[in-house]
Amino acid sequence: MTRARSRRTAFGLAALLALATFAAAEEPVASGDPAAVEFFEKQVRPIFVERCVGCHGPEKQKGDLRLDSRAAVLDGGTLGPAVEPGDPDSSLLVDAIRYGDLKMPPKSKLPPEEIEILAQWVARGAPWGVEAEPTASAGPRTGLDGSPEFSRRAEFWSFQPIRAVEPPAIEGPRADWVRSPIDRFLLAAMAGRGLEPAGEADRQTLIRRLTFDLIGLPPTPQEVSAFVADEHPGAYERLVDRLLASPQYGERWGRHWLDLVRFAETAGHEFDYDLLNAWQYRDYVVRAFNRDLPYDEFVVEQIAGDLLATPRRDPVDGSNESVRGTGFYWLGEGVHSPLDVRDEGVRRVDNQIDVLSKTFMGLTVSCARCHDHKFDPISARDYYALAGFLRGTRHQQAFLDSHIRIDPIVADLKARKESLADLLDEAAARLPVDRKDAIEALLGPGPAIPTPDGDFPPGRLAAWRASGDAFEIANEARGFRVDLREEAPRLVAAHAGSLHSGLVSDRLQGVVRSPTFTIRKPFLQVLASGSGGRFNIVIDGFEKVRDPIYGGLTRGVDAKGGPSWMGFDVRTWLGHRAYIEACDGATAEFTGATARPVDGRGWLAILAVREADEPGAPAPPPPAPATIAVDDLIRELQTGDSPLASRLAAALSEYREIESRVPDPILAPAAVDGDGEDEFVMLRGNSRTLGEAVPRRVLAVLGGAAPSPSTSGSGRLDLAYALVDVRTNPLTPRVLVNRIWKQHFGEGLVRSPDDFGVMGQAPTHPELLDWLASEFVRRGWSIKAMHRLILGSAAYRMASRATPDADRIDPTNALLHRMNVRRLEAEAVRDALLAVSGRLDRRVGGPSVAPHLSPFMEGRGRPATSGPLDGQGRRSLYLQVRRNFLNPMFQVFDAPVPFSTIGRRHASNVPAQALTLLNDPLVLELADAWAGRLLAEVGADQDDVGRIERLYREAFGRAPTVEEITRCSAYLEARKGVEPSSPRAVWADLGHALFNVKEFVYVD
Questions:
Q1: Which of 54, 213, 559, 804 is the most exposed place for a label (fewest CB within 10 A)?
Q2: Are residues 408 and 378 in the same domain?
């Protein structure tokens, strides 16, 4: 029998088991749906404002057409309605922007991405935001601050302080059901509707529910049997504790968190360039959950972990954990070569604000970019006050090495270098005058360097900020470096006052950045020497992915023989804000998308920086620094009976040995502070039309009326502490406990977990939400403590089946009279397949596995090689997330597209899911592996019934029913008659059928 025929047979068995597969259940976007409104406000309205209302707005109506209200769009102009909601191909507006029979805008076609946005908008039914009277105002409506309307909006429930709530008293027989104060709140709500809670689920159901909830994997038959048989008090609590202590807990809950921060490892868009070392952030999150890092610290680390005076260190390798948290800023999409750098930077900040505000506060602050928020007490000034924190924030590949690991090596190198200097002093007295002069030149202050312009910030090298261990200012004397890159070692003088990366060792890594400045003259000139280093001119905070199409702003350094002037033509960028970034040889490529050179060596010295009106070099560079070939010096000293030569050789050998211990750097994407800069209000969100500057502060409704106290730097640390100050911000704990509740019950107490504003949903149990938030803070912001609290309730132990009367009274189960049945997320489906098959690799952490690419996954940016079909058996968390090549199985099972915060995944029920489980090569391969393991582990003396029971216990955590055994046995007999010589294929087909049973991908 062919494998295709075998698959059909397996599907037939699944049908015989009377557990149907998946049927389509797509739903259109509802009118007034918050997601649709947000799509319009953030994506569509800015296009209309920027591109259309100048000719089709309140002042002009060419063709009698207005595009500033939904009614006007539907009424249309002289040619008829502008759109046909739901049908973009029949809409005049879409035809015009596609340059069909009509051509609008007339001067130039819209960018493809804007055309696609408008077509999507029409396809979704042309949803609109708030229906306000059209206005001719040229700027954002910033009158919300301090107005009566602001005060009215600020009275909304989510902005009120967390109340001290006592659980309601429960009397009578109902009180016997209560296991936790949580149950009291739920029972009180049910009683008001005449509802009774469902009975307790059996132990097999409970352990499967708990195990998937906490570690995202199925329980083994041995674990199920042990729990069912454990009659000692506290068996349930011990199971919870064991699962919370499992390394897989952090992987499971870390994956939930990655949905919020739109985790991906490539930038998307045209070439899908890598976001280097993004996996470091993922592993940071996993470790944070496993170690139960208090959530307030978790928040602070992600907002401003690079600014903590005493960062948290990894207990294993001592690396800086806190700075890793700031990687979440840099996980978004990014155009690699924008035509408008400032606008692209504004777009990235907008995404950062969107993710930050939804993730931590449950607010859609980004909706206030073009105008005051239409519903919530968030003004445009609030938005730009937050944007200021990010305007003063730069991207870096942070050096995470522990000082405990690096400092002793650096100290030893400096000591050996000082010994070399002492030996050179001693040698000078024994050598001819010319050699003595050379040594004195080496140990002296070095040649003079030009004096920089006094009012040009980058010219003051002492103000530059360094990352890593490489860069320092050369001292006035004894500032030489030991060059071991060539076969013959050399000692090379450093210009006094230069910013130098190789003074201790050119194996140390580092980046140094200038203060931010305004480009006032058409040319920048840098006097530098070095080998393999690189300079980048970063315009408007835009960190390149590849050399942008405007070019000329990144240059390598190859001036080993002595200093030379390097010129940058910046005429295009006059008036823009910029800073200079200098990378030593080993890290020069980390601002791009390529790996660092394998030898780790390189150095860079910056002597002067100036701005100029003309492109030519300002003056001859200073002479090359003194250099001494050590081998020649040793030979000269070997004459006579002095041991100096051997001492010098030994000192150099010791230096070389110590330098060999310099480790490769641990690097991760992170934030680094720039200069404190307030952002300007952008009229209608347009980066080219600026209003007044807004001082940095938190949202006014959260106590941010006063400016941030920080006067230097970005001020992000002030923002971080404000977000976890429950005296002024009740949102952070409320939002997080709601997210935990949602993952355990399938729905949150607030069913819009990313929007606690007016367009979100009201809490079903507001008193319970506040009680949980209070307990969360009282228990030290411990997420594991909240798990224990929630999982210890009788509510969590309920069965999922209810009476018809209960479902009639509470059809959406908003009052939680029963447990919700939940489908596994995409990653958990794949992980369960791996676990059951025996192919799961449980290693925790490390670089991501390249994705498997089918022949149908084509396009620009496609990796040259495909990863293994099974992803090396690693959990789905460790498969590389490439934005342009997302995993097809994950997409079918509703994994989110990593664009913005997704706190509530869709759970569709579509035919493609059944087709995937039937036909995906990975599913077939794992079914075969499962059969092979079954036959290897279950002896030949075991009958078919024993093997069937083994399959059911591994797949569903329970024994098969008599009817299921009968049907499976009949199927096996029929298949053996067709393929008597291939028992593995027969059992693989049975296993494949069980993979297709709904029970495999649902948790009861």
A1: 804
A2: no
Q: Answer yes or no: is 342 within a domain.
A: yes
Residue 49 DSSP label = I
Same domain, 469 and 552: yes
Q: Do 790 and 658 belong together in one domain?
A: no
Q: Does 789 have pLDDT greater than 80? A: yes
Quote the distance between the C-alpha of residue 346 and its chain's center.
18
Q: Which of 729, 750, 775 is the last residue of a domain?
A: 729
What residue type is 619 in one-letter code?
A: A
Cα distance between residue 740 and residue 733, in whole Å = 11
- Name the nearest CA neighbour of 795 among 767, 822, 817, 825: 817
507 and 420 inside one domain: yes
* Residues 466 and 439 grouped into a single domain: yes
Instruction: For residues 700 and 706, give the distance between their C-alpha atoms in angstroms, rounded to a whole number.
Output: 8
With respect to residue 858, please indicate whether it lies within any of the assigned structural domains.
Answer: no
CA 111 to chain centre: 27
Higher pLDDT, 596 or 865: 865
569 close to 615: Cβ distance less than 8 angstroms: yes
Residue 81 near residue 71, CB atoms below 8 Å: no
CA distances from 587 to 257, 339, 463, 961 (A): 30, 27, 21, 62
Does one domain contain both 715 and 746? no
- Look at residues 786, 809, 832 and tell me which one is the last residue of a structural domain: 809
- With beta carbons less than 8 A apart as the criterion, state whether 321 and 314 touch: yes
* Tokens coding 189: 């709500």
Quote the longest CA-to-CA distance of the chain: 108
Give the span between the Cα atoms of 570 and 537, in whole angstroms.
9
Domain membership of residue 174 (yes or no) is no
Claim to verify: residue 67 and residue 103 sit in the same structural domain: yes
pTM (2 decimals)?
0.85
Q: Exposed/middle/buried for 725, CB within 10 Å: 0-12, 13-18, 19+?
A: middle
Strand segments, DSSP code E, in 649-719 are: 667-673, 679-682, 690-694
Residue with tokens 């996954």, as numbered in its chain: 857
pLDDT confidence bin for 1, thresholds 50/70/90: very low
What is the total residue count of the chain? 1004
DSSP 592: T
Q: What is the pLDDT of residues 183-197, one digit of tens each?
A: 999 999 999 999 999
CA dist 729 and 703 (Å) reads 8
Q: CB-based burial of residue 660 (10 Å sphere; 0-12 exposed, 13-18 middle, 19+ buried)?
A: exposed
The set of long-range contacts for 738-744, using a CB threshold of 8 Å and a minimum separation of 24, is 738/362, 738/763, 738/769, 739/256, 739/260, 739/903, 740/783, 740/786, 740/787, 740/790, 741/772, 741/790, 742/903, 742/904, 743/213, 743/253, 743/256, 744/213, 744/787, 744/790, 744/791, 744/796
Strands 679-682 and 667-673: unpaired
DSSP letter for each residue of 837-905: HT--B-----SPBPPP--TT--STT--SSPPPTTGGGB-GGGB---TTS--HHHHHTTPPPTTS--SS-
Question: Which tokens hold the place of 319?
Answer: 């690396």
Tell me, yes or no, whether 167 lies in a domain.
no
Please choose, from the candidates 103, 8, 135, the residue with its C-alpha nearest in 3D space to the C-alpha of residue 993. 8
**Cβ distance 368 to 652 under 8 Å?**
no
Contact 263, 881 (CB under 8 A): yes
Structural domain total, the chain:
5
pLDDT, one tens digit per residue, over 500-536 is: 887 888 788 888 899 999 999 999 999 988 887 888 8
User: Please, are residues 651 and 416 in contact by the beta-carbon 8 Å criterion?
Assistant: yes
**Can you read off the two tokens belonging to residue 501?**
């990366």
Q: How far is CA 674 from CA 276, 392, 701, 764, 843, in A?
A: 21, 5, 27, 44, 38
Regarding whether 588 and 449 lie in a shared domain, the answer is: yes
